[in-house]
């Protein structure tokens, strides 16, 4: 089994209204050192091992459905999981 | 003229759309469930507002893969009028039938009220009934209506007169105050405001009815009617 951790973030060039609101809130709590907050999504996919190319398949999933590449970037990490 | 109102799980403005066509426009209309795969019997396709598939992941992202969407694409390619309102607009963006993407409203609030729109292009099949730069009143109800596109896309939209409606005041942070855009051929229109909820003075405005009348009038000009 594989565990794939997918991180979806708004592109650097895209303003993040949620992030700005949270940043303002941190400043209100006097954490003035916070320069920027960006909010994204984290997803964990558990994948069966098989006769497929993992990177190709995960990239396809990200680009077709998980991320909207007009406004979002994605990265992922793969961990091999040995079922107990 | 016969219209289809596409119904996804979570659509909630489908009945409003149906009412606008049947009772106010006086034309034929049918609900079409998302599992169907054929729209050949229809002349116009309407994607209503709501929260298709609960808007899980992103607005419109899951509906884009519904079986009926292949038929919607075919109808769009065949030149039939395709109108997506609110969530319907988001679905058209996710499906790549229109350029751009939606973000959360700039102020993060769900906005539900009448707004003033400027008709930026009255030469589309959807807007010939309006004057150019006419200000009309149409309600909005959305949380993810902050239209975004990159500089290149915006320039392309401007060059091809694809910006059909702008907000008079930028209520949600949309790029260039965009409230509605059409495709290059002009037969696919997506807009966040709800024209189907502005079809009778009783509703606070009847300004949306002209959009449906425009579709009908333009369709009749190019189709021979059989009794």
In oligomeric terms, what are we looking at?
Answer: heterodimer
Structural class of chain A: alpha+beta
Shape of chain A: elongated
Terminal-residue CA separation of chain B: 12 Å
The total strand number of chain B stands at 11
Rounded to the nearest angstrom, the radius of gyration of chain B is 16 Å
Q: Gap between N and C termini of chain A, in Å? A: 11 Å
How much helical structure, as a percent, in the residues of chain A?
A: 25-40%
| Low-confidence regions of chain A | none
Question: Order of helices and strands of chain A, N to C?
Answer: EHEHE
Strand order of the largest sheet of chain A: 2-1-3
> Number of DSSP helices of chain B?
5
Number of helices of chain A: 2
Q: What does this entry show, briefly?
A:
Helix content of chain A is 30%, strand content 30%.
Structure commentary:
The complex is a heterodimer of chains A (84) and B (227). With 84 residues, chain A is α+β, with helices and mostly antiparallel strands. Chain A contains 2 helices and 3 strands. Chain A has a 3-stranded antiparallel beta sheet, with helices on one face. The longest helix of chain A has 13 residues, at 54-66. Chain A is elongated and about 50 Å long. The N and C termini of chain A lie close together (11 Å). Chain B is α/β, with parallel strands linked by helices and 227 residues long. Helices cover 23% and strands 25% of the residues of chain B. Chain B has helices at residues 14-25, 68-77, 87-94, 151-159, 209-222; strands at 2-7, 28-33, 44-47, 82-85, 101-103, 111-119, 135-142, 146-148, 163-167, 178-182, 188-191. A 9-stranded mixed beta sheet of chain B has the order 2-1-3-4-11-10-9-6-7, sandwiched between helices. Chain B has a two-stranded antiparallel sheet with strand order 5-8. In chain B, strand 3, helix 2 and strand 4 form a beta-alpha-beta unit. Chain B is globular, with a radius of gyration of 16 Å. The two termini of chain B are 12 Å apart. The relative contact order of chain B is 0.17. The mean pLDDT of chain B is 96. Chain A binds chain B through residues 10, 13-15, 17-18, 21, 65-66, 68, 70-71, and chain B through 57-58, 61-62, 65, 93-94, 100-101, 103-108, 146, 148-150, 173.
């Amino acid at each position: 089994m594989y565990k794939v951790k997918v991180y979806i973030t708004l592109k650097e060039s895209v303003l993040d209204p949620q992030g700005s609101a949270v940043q303002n809130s941190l400043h209100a709590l006097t954490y003035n050192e916070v320069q920027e907050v960006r909010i994204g999504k984290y997803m964990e996919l558990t994948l069966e091992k098989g006769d497929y190319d993992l990177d190709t398949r995960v990239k396809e999933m990200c680009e077709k459905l998980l991320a909207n590449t007009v406004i979002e970037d994605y990265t992922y990490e793969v961990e091999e999981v040995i079922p107990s | 003229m016969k219209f289809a109102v596409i119904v996804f799980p979570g659509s909630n403005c489908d009945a409003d759309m149906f009412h606008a066509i049947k009772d106010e426009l006086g034309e034929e209309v049918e609900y079409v469930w998302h599992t169907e795969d054929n729209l050949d019997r229809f002349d116009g396709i309407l994607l209503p507002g709501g929260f298709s598939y609960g808007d899980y992941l992103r607005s419109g992202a899951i509906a884009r893969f519904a079986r009926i969407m292949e038929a919607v694409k075919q109808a769009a390619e065949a030149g039939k009028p395709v109108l997506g309102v609110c969530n319907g607009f988001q679905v058209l963006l996710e499906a790549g039938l229109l350029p751009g993407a939606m973000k959360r409203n700039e102020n993060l609030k769900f906005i539900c009220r009448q707004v003033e729109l400027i008709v930026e292009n009255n030469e589309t099949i959807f807007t010939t009934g309006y004057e150019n730069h006419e200000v009309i009143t149409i309600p909005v109800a959305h949380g993810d209506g902050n239209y975004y596109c990159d500089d290149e896309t915006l320039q392309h939209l401007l060059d091809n007169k694809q910006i059909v409606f702008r907000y008079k005041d930028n209520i949600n942070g949309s790029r260039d105050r965009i409230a509605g855009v059409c495709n290059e051929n002009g037969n696919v229109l997506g807009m966040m405001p709800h024209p189907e909820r502005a079809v009778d003075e009783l509703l606070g405005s009847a300004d949306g009815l002209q959009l449906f009348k425009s579709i009908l009038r333009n369709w009749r000009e190019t189709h021979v009617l059989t009794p």
